[in-house]
Amino acid sequence: MSADLEPSVKPVIIPPVITIDGPSGSGKGTIAHRLALKFGFHVLDSGALYRLLALAAQQHGVQTHNEAALQVLAAHLDAQFQDNNGEAMLILEGEDVTQSIRSEEIGAAASKIAALPTVREALLQRQHAFRETPGLVADGRDMGTVVFPDASLKIFLTASAEARAERRYKQLLEKGFAASLPAILADIQARDLRDSQRTVSPLKPAQEAIVLDSTALGIEAVLAAVIEAAKTKTNLQEFLVKS
Ligand code: C5P
Fold first, then answer.
1. Ligand 1 pocket: which of 50, 127, 145, 175 to mutate (most atoms <8 Å of CB)?
2. Strands 42-45 and 17-21, bridge-based pairing
3. pTM surpassing 0.85?
């Protein structure tokens, strides 16, 4: 058979993924967005999905322990991530909820419902759908361990609970929310405990993850360390935009 007659088989290109896991307030979101800009990749803020579900549950009067109802709500979650001049705008049932999902109350409810196995399962497909060309930076708790186990680069970003509480406190004040530092610290410690001790997808570094501590390093140094690590991965090198 001549070369022209051979059926053309297009290679399936699987977009590369960089995962950034770690506890709340470790700087994952900032690092994920900066990396996405640097590589020209999409971003998945998986915590926002759990927050959207927590808000939907609150609006529909579904309790955080009602697993069966939450599973149905998760499977039919009417939520969109839209781009608003480079910032993510989150829409729930047609309403802009970008700010309201960031409250401490919704964060705590998200952490409770995130411990339910069938809820996590129901959100899995939706998270995989973010993996589009040219690539994805996925931010969460179980991105490297469960959702994208074949990621090219896995980062686990941590920081002391005190440093994270301080950052969160400043963020909330800047956004115009009322905030109490001791209450935020207690909430962060409770959430860390719940996230790391749950039986499904507990918060823990993937075996091959690079663990970085932003208390000691600061965001710029973390970013530089991640970029250095990415340079060693052949399927990421080509996307590094010089700047
Ligand atoms: O990251 P963020 O604080 O927005 O996440 C809210 C909550 O959602 C977390 O406390 C965690 O319990 C849950 N979550 C999760 N798995 C993810 C992302 C978030 O369990 N991949």
1. 50
2. unpaired
3. yes
